[in-house]
Design brief:
Elements: E1 2-5, H1 15-19, E2 25-28, E3 31-34, E4 53-56, E5 74-78, E6 80-81, E7 84-85, H2 87-103, E8 107-113, H3 120-125, E9 130-135, H4 144-158, E10 162-166, H5 169-182, E11 186-190, E12 192-195, E13 202-208, E14 213-217, E15 225-229, E16 246-249, E17 280-284, H6 294-303, E18 307-310, H7 312-316, E19 337-341, H8 347-350, E20 358-363, H9 370-373, E21 376-379, H10 382-394
Parallel strand pairs: 5-8, 5-10, 8-9, 9-16, 10-15, 11-15, 17-18, 17-19, 19-20, 20-21
Antiparallel strand pairs: 1-4, 2-3, 6-7, 12-13, 13-14
Helix pairs in contact: 4-5, 6-10
Bound molecules: flavin-adenine dinucleotide (FAD) and iron/sulfur cluster (2 copies).
Length: 395
C-alpha cells in the first residue's frame, strides 16, 4: 500500500491533520505532507473535502499457501507444559466447537510434545472430533522454532480453515511465527470470535486504540485464519466422558532441528496462588506508596487463599514482578472476586479485570474510575481497611 497527496488538489485546509490518529500529517505552507510514521490506516482519506489524499492498495504479490475453498476444519492448538494441558485449551475447545458447528465442519485439537499420547482422550472429551498428535522427543519443552516447524508441516498437509491458540507466552511466540511462514493473518488477544453467517469467515473482535473501540478483523483471502484468545476470557468446554473421537498420529516430514538450547528452566516461586488460575485476586496499586507495602496485599491474598495482582504503575516502579501485572499489557483475569487496593482504574487496567464476577475497590478518592466498575466500593485509606479485613478473616 502507498499514500500520496495530490499537490494540485490540496488546498492546505488542514482538515486531515486532526483526522490522523498518529499525528502523521503536517502542513508545509499550503500543502499537506505525510510523515514517516504514517501507518497507512486510511483514516484521513475520506476526510479530505478535495479528494487530495490517495491511498493505493497493491494486490498481494504472495499467494496464500492454500485457498479458502481447500480449507476445512477448526483447529485448536492444545498447549501443554510437562504433559499437562493448559486450561486455555479447554476454553478454546468450547468456542471452537461452536464455530465448527456453525461452519458445519470438524473441530480438531493439535497436540505437540514428547510422550503425551495419554492426553488425547481429554481433548476429545472436551469437544474435539479429531486430535492430531505429534510425539517427538525434540518437542519435550517448548521451543518456538521446532514447534512452529511441526505445526506448519501439519497445516500444509491438512489445510485447516481456522486455528485458535491461547494468548499465553507460548501462543504469543508460536502463532506469529506460523502466520508469517504461511503468509496469513493473525489477530492477537481476541475477546470474541464469531462466524459471518453469509461469507462463512471468522470475525475476530478485539479492543483497539487502548481499549476505546472494539475492532472486528477478518482474513478473507488467506488461510488459515488465525487468532489468539487470552486465558479466562471464554468459559471452559464441559467434559463429556462418553465422547468418541479419532487420533491421527503424525510425524513431521523433516527432522526437527532447533537453534535454541535450553540451559535451565527456572520456575517462579510464589507463596500465593497463580494469578490466572485464582478464584480470588487481591491487587495493589500506586496507592500502596512503596514496595514494602505489598506485604499487606500478600497477607490479604494468603488469608483468602488467593493470588496477588498489581497495576502497571507498581510493576514499572519495581515493587513487584511483571508476572503479577493485570491489564492490557499484563494478564487478563476473570476471578470470582477481584479486590483492587489503591488502584485508580485506568482503562488499561480495567480491560484486564472487568469481567471478574465481583469487584471490590478500596480507594480513598471517591471519584476514582475504579468505582464505576466496582460491585462494592470502599472509600477509605487502604492502610486502615486492609488490616481490618485481614483481622476479621483471621478470626
Ligand atoms: C499502552 C499502555 C498500556 C498499559 N497497560 C497497563 C496494564 O496492563 N495494567 C495497568 O494496570 N496499567 C496499564 N497502563 C497504565 C495505566 O494507564 C495507569 O497508569 C495505571 O494503571 C495506574 O496504576 P495505579 O492505578 O496503580 O496508579 P494511579 O493511577 O496513580 O492510582 C493510584 C490510586 O491509589 C489511590 N490511593 C492513594 N493512596 C491511597 C490510600 N492510602 N488508600 C486508598 N487509595 C489510595 C489514589 O486515589 C489513586 O486512585 C498502561 C498504559 C499504557 C499507555
Ligand atoms: S493513512 Fe492514517 S496514519 Fe497515514 S496520514 Fe492518513 S490518517 Fe495518518
Ligand atoms: S484535507 Fe485535503 S486539502 Fe485539506 S490539507 Fe489535507 S490533503 Fe490538503
Amino acid at each position: 500500500m502507498s499514500i500520496k497527496i495530490l499537490e494540485d488538489k490540496c488546498t492546505g485546509c488542514g482538515a486531515c491533520l486532526s483526522a490522523c490518529p498518529f499525528g502523521a500529517i503536517e502542513l508545509k505552507g499550503k500543502l499537506a505532507v505525510i510523515k514517516d510514521n504514517c501507518t497507512l490506516c486510511g483514516a484521513c482519506v475520506d476526510v479530505c473535502p478535495f479528494e487530495a489524499i490517495v491511498l493505493t492498495k497493491d494486490k498481494p504479490s504472495i499467494s496464500s499457501t492454500y485457498s479458502a475453498t481447500e480449507a476445512k476444519g477448526v483447529w485448536v492448538f492444545a498447549e501443554q507444559e510437562e504433559g499437562n494441558i493448559h486450561s486455555v485449551t479447554y476454553e478454546l475447545l468450547g468456542k471452537g466447537r461452536e464455530l465448527a458447528d456453525k461452519l458445519r465442519t470438524e473441530l480438531c485439537a493439535v497436540l505437540l510434545g514428547s510422550k503425551i499420547g495419554n492426553r488425547t482422550e481429554e481433548l476429545i472429551q472436551r469437544g474435539a472430533d479429531k486430535v492430531y498428535l505429534v510425539e517427538n522427543e525434540q518437542l519435550l519443552n517448548y521451543r518456538s522454532d521446532i514447534y512452529s516447524d511441526a505445526l506448519v508441516d501439519l497445516i500444509r498437509r491438512y489445510k485447516p480453515d481456522v486455528i485458535l491458540a491461547g494468548a499465553t507466552s507460548v501462543g504469543r511466540s508460536l502463532t506469529p511465527r506460523v502466520a508469517a511462514t504461511l503468509k496469513t493473518g493473525l489477530t492477537a488477544d481476541c475477546t470474541s470470535l464469531e462466524i459471518d453467517p453469509e461469507k462463512k469467515i471468522l470475525l475476530q473482535t478485539r479492543p483497539a486504540f487502548g481499549g476505546n473501540i472494539m475492532a472486528t478483523i477478518i482474513c478473507p483471502e488467506r488461510r488459515p485464519q488465525m487468532a489468539t484468545v487470552r486465558h479466562k476470557v471464554l468459559p471452559e468446554a464441559e467434559v463429556d466422558k462418553e465422547r468418541k473421537g479419532e487420533v491421527i498420529v503424525a510425524q513431521p516430514q523433516r527432522a526437527l532441528v532447533s537453534n535454541i538450547k535450553i540451559e535451565d528452566i527456572v520456575k517462579e516461586i510464589d507463596k500465593t496462588v497463580k494469578l490466572t488460575e485464582a478464584d480470588i485476586i487481591v491487587s495493589g496499586g500506586r496507592g500502596l506508596g512503596k514496595k514494602e507495602n505489598f506485604g499487606l496485599i500478600e497477607e490479604l491474598a494468603l488469608a483468602l487463599k488467593g493470588a496477588m495482582g498489581a497495576s502497571r504503575a507498581t510493576v514499572d516502579s519495581g515493587w513487584i514482578p511483571y508476572s503479577h501485572q493485570v491489564g492490557q499489557t499484563g494478564k487478563t483475569v476473570c476471578p470470582k472476586v477481584y479486590i483492587a487496593c489503591g488502584i485508580s482504574g485506568q482503562i488499561q487496567h480495567l480491560v484486564g479485570m472487568q469481567s471478574s464476577k465481583i469487584i471490590i475497590a478500596i480507594n480513598k478518592d471517591p471519584e476514582a474510575p475504579i468505582f464505576k466498575v466496582a460491585t462494592y466500593g470502599i472509600v477509605g485509606d487502604l492502610f486502615e481497611v486492609v488490616p481490618a479485613l485481614i483481622k476479621e478473616l483471621k478470626k
